[in-house]
Sequence to fold (148 residues):
Amino acid sequence: MIELLNDYPVQLEIPIAWGDMDAFQHVNNLVYLRHFESARMAYLECCNYAEVKEQTGVGPILRDSSIRYRIPLTYPGNVIAAARVTRIEQDRFTMQQVVYSLEHGRIAAEGEGVLVCLDYRTNQKAPVPEAYREFMLRREPIAPVLAA
Fold:
């Protein structure tokens, strides 16, 4: 395991595709966000989000996202997209994500997203589901924040 990624419980290796490149001959900035999304969805799968949403109507929605690009990537190559939760509140949680370049041995991009839990039946905010909390608190070195 790569030491820089030790604190990320969810990691997936993704190959860089030729089509990820743009006219400036490096991986397009939107591709990094797709990698973040892949890691985020892999994390949510660990929380059984589909089953929770089917049973309760509650699921996450991305409120905002930020990204900092560190190094350009090019084809061919492979990255590891990784995600962890750094904060849990009443109705939302903050997820930190990275894209790590295996070829460079460095983080190529890092970012953060805030996901709000929504009851899709009523279109209202809802508490973070217990299944999410259980996974997050079992796998992450964080303390929950209860005030919204």
User: Anything to note?
Assistant: The chain has one domain: 3-139. The chain has a mean pLDDT of 94.
